[in-house]
Amino acid sequence: MKISRPRGTRDFLPEDTRRRRNVENILRKVVRNWGFSEIITPTFEALELFTLKSGDGIIGELYNFTDKGNRAMTLRPELTAPVMRMYVNEMQANQRPLKLFYFENCFRYERPQKGRFREFWQFGVELIGSNKIDADAEVIALASEMLKAVGIKGSLHVNHLGIIRHLLSVLKTEQQSRIMRLVDKKDDTGLVDYLEEIDAPGHLRLELMELISLTGSEAIEKARQLTGDIPELEEYQELLTLLEAYGVDYIIDFGIARGLDYYTGMVFEIYAEGLGAQNQVCGGGSYQLIKLFGGGDVASTGFGLGFDRIMEICDIEPDDDKPVVIIAMDSTRIEAVETATKLRFHMPVYLDLMKRSFKAQLSYADHIGAHYALIIGESEVEAGKVTLKNMDSGKQELLTIEEVIQKMNC
RNA sequence: GCCGGGGUAGGGUAGCGGUUAUCCUGUAGCCCUGUGGAGGCUACGAUCCGAGUUCGAUUCUCGGUCCCGGCCCCA
């Protein structure tokens, strides 16, 4: 009986895994250098954690189940909620800001397509405890730096929701969120229809439609003409100034809304090319979720990077790990094992496990792309040395094990 | 949940009603029991699943499933 892999999941072969781990570690290094600490949360959580955040509607998109104690559980579909839950459970007394990051797999019951899987990996950052624009700026700059570190050019779109919210403040809360969702989807006709439906004031319609179309260097000034001098606009300007100091290229985009109610101010998204319909590689903003999970009124800002999408367009290759292949005769197998054991403290070593002929062992070394073969035959054993053969040049020399270690630069 | 395009050895493919199901690559071994990469030889290995049409289906029809892309959704 042949069992196939579950839909939307992937097997990562040795080469894929090496590439992924490599990129993953590059990202980790960057984030650590920005002063963030890695955390791990459970692979499954109480279902309520996510319905509380996103509504019952998401259950259809979850890998949820009832456990043997009749508890409603789910594999995590994302990590922001778990991290906030962890904060509320364990870290409320910690000094702020808390700078946390994670790299974990998530699960969503969705139709797979390019850059979208049922099991996927998210690399995310959450900065908890600061509601200052400085925190927002640092988080955006970090996202931008991470992508740069793995050689991805993306376009970064930033917005400050305070401005659109100011404009909409005359409307009811639920009308506001409906509008935000339509803006997020870039559904202009839907938006016009809805404004008509709720009979929004004419000037508001015009101002809103103009605001969300604003982008580019003049955008702030144009927005000011629409809203007048408001603190949110000041703050936005301050954010942009900081981003320039960080050396981040950004695009002002009043059309970024992120569709969800818990975003409070700054929001951003990064798009990359070569990904088809799913071209967003990063999204984030400042939000208020901690209160929802029973904690205090603590602001956070963070983002998630779609690691699989990054891998799709990232062409960074890991360094060769210079393996050495030991080639022995049947009569020198014991010495070969002993030598391998010593060398394995210093380098990757292959030993023949197939009882192959001398020639076939050498051929194997060639096939796996080894740069060095180490010949241990009877004459080498007699001399108490080994023959190191350079597979590229074909040259070989008789050396002691210590000399081999030194020569291999370990 | 919906729409489109696809499933032939491990990978890449040809055949499109009757073939020992093609070729390349791969893997194991031999030619060649202390020197690899080339070549030759041998072996291994496939029609996604199930129904239907037919004397006969890899080929045609339907259903399922999986893959690819898109819609919806995107926390």
From TrEMBL:
<feature type="binding site">
    <location>
        <position position="122"/>
    </location>
    <ligand>
        <name>L-histidine</name>
    </ligand>
</feature>
<dbReference type="InterPro" id="IPR045864">
    <property type="entry name" value="aa-tRNA-synth_II/BPL/LPL"/>
</dbReference>
<dbReference type="InterPro" id="IPR004154">
    <property type="entry name" value="Anticodon-bd"/>
</dbReference>
<dbReference type="InterPro" id="IPR004516">
    <property type="entry name" value="HisRS/HisZ"/>
</dbReference>
<dbReference type="GO" id="GO:0005524">
    <property type="term" value="F:ATP binding"/>
</dbReference>
<dbReference type="GO" id="GO:0005737">
    <property type="term" value="C:cytoplasm"/>
</dbReference>
<feature type="binding site">
    <location>
        <position position="108"/>
    </location>
    <ligand>
        <name>L-histidine</name>
    </ligand>
</feature>
<keyword id="KW-0547">Nucleotide-binding</keyword>
<protein>
    <recommendedName>
        <fullName>Histidine--tRNA ligase</fullName>
        <ecNumber>6.1.1.21</ecNumber>
    </recommendedName>
</protein>
<feature type="binding site">
    <location>
        <position position="126"/>
    </location>
    <ligand>
        <name>L-histidine</name>
    </ligand>
</feature>
<dbReference type="GO" id="GO:0004821">
    <property type="term" value="F:histidine-tRNA ligase activity"/>
</dbReference>
<dbReference type="InterPro" id="IPR015807">
    <property type="entry name" value="His-tRNA-ligase"/>
</dbReference>
<feature type="binding site">
    <location>
        <begin position="78"/>
        <end position="80"/>
    </location>
    <ligand>
        <name>L-histidine</name>
    </ligand>
</feature>
<keyword id="KW-0030">Aminoacyl-tRNA synthetase</keyword>
<keyword id="KW-0963">Cytoplasm</keyword>
<dbReference type="InterPro" id="IPR006195">
    <property type="entry name" value="aa-tRNA-synth_II"/>
</dbReference>
<dbReference type="Pfam" id="PF03129">
    <property type="entry name" value="HGTP_anticodon"/>
</dbReference>
<feature type="binding site">
    <location>
        <begin position="262"/>
        <end position="263"/>
    </location>
    <ligand>
        <name>L-histidine</name>
    </ligand>
</feature>
<feature type="binding site">
    <location>
        <position position="258"/>
    </location>
    <ligand>
        <name>L-histidine</name>
    </ligand>
</feature>
<dbReference type="InterPro" id="IPR041715">
    <property type="entry name" value="HisRS-like_core"/>
</dbReference>
<dbReference type="Pfam" id="PF13393">
    <property type="entry name" value="tRNA-synt_His"/>
</dbReference>
<feature type="domain" description="Aminoacyl-transfer RNA synthetases class-II family profile">
    <location>
        <begin position="7"/>
        <end position="311"/>
    </location>
</feature>
<dbReference type="InterPro" id="IPR036621">
    <property type="entry name" value="Anticodon-bd_dom_sf"/>
</dbReference>
<comment type="similarity">
    <text>Belongs to the class-II aminoacyl-tRNA synthetase family.</text>
</comment>
<keyword id="KW-0648">Protein biosynthesis</keyword>
<keyword id="KW-0436">Ligase</keyword>
<dbReference type="InterPro" id="IPR004517">
    <property type="entry name" value="HisZ"/>
</dbReference>
<dbReference type="GO" id="GO:0000105">
    <property type="term" value="P:L-histidine biosynthetic process"/>
</dbReference>
<dbReference type="GO" id="GO:0006427">
    <property type="term" value="P:histidyl-tRNA aminoacylation"/>
</dbReference>
<dbReference type="InterPro" id="IPR033656">
    <property type="entry name" value="HisRS_anticodon"/>
</dbReference>
<keyword id="KW-0067">ATP-binding</keyword>
